[in-house]
Amino acid sequence: MSDSVVMTVESHEALKREIERLETEGRREIADRIKTAREFGDLKENAEYHDAKNSQALLETKILTLRDKLLRAEVQETAPAADVVALGTTVTLRDEGSGREDTFTLVSALDAAPSDGKLSFDSPLARALVGAKAGKLVDVPTPRGVRKVTVLSLA
User: Tens of pLDDT along 118-132?
Assistant: First the structure.
C-alpha cells in the first residue's frame, strides 16, 4: 500500500481529528466496556467480554488504517484550475450512450458519496476526466467496455 492518497486540506484535517477521537474517546469507551465485562465473572464464557475485546481489535485496526492514509496523504493545498478537471472541481457530464447528464464534485476517497454527487478522485471515471476541459469527449474504461462521456461544464 505505497500509493498516495489524494485529499484536500479539509479532508486531511478531518482525518487527523477522527484519529484523535478514536485514540481518545474510542479507546476510553472500549476500556470501560472491557472493565465492566470483567466484573461479570468467568472470562471464558463471558460474551460481553469477548465482544468488547473484538471491538477493541476492530478499533485498533481502524486507527492503523487511518494512520496509514495520513502517512500516504498527498494534500492538495491550492484551488483547482478553473478550466480543467481536477480535485475539487464540479463537473457536469453527458453519457453519450444513454444521453444522461450528471453533475459530480471530485473529492478525496474519504469524502466520496456518489448519491450526494461527490465522486472519489480515485474512481475510474474521475481518473479519466482529470485534465479534461469543457466540451471534451472522454473515453472511460469500464468492465463492460469503453464508455464515452462529454464534459459539458466545469465549476
Answer: 998 888 999 999 889
Q: Which residues sit opposite 139 in a β-bridge?
A: 148
Question: Taking the domains of the chain in order of start, what are their residue ranges?
Answer: 5-76, 90-154
pLDDT, tens only, 27-61: 999 999 999 988 887 777 888 999 999 999 999 99
CATH of domain 5-76: 1.10.287.180
- Give one DSSP letter per residue of 48-77, joined into a string: HHHHHHHHHHHHHHHHHHHHHHHHTEEEE-
Residue the block writes with cell 492518497: 5
Cβ count near 144 (within 10 Å) = 6
Query: What kind of architecture, by CATH, is found in domain 90-154?
Result: Roll (3.10)
Per-residue buried b or exposed e for 66-96, using 16+ beta carbons within 10 Å of the residue's own CB: beebeeebeebeeebeeebbbbbbbbebbee
Could you please report the per-residue DSSP string of 4-35?
-EEEEHHHHHHHHHHHHHIIIIIHHHHHHHHH
| Nearest to 29, CA basis, from 66, 16, 37 | 37
The pLDDT assigned to 26 comes to 96
Q: What is the reported pTM?
A: 0.66
Decide whether 5-76 matches 90-154 in CATH topology: no
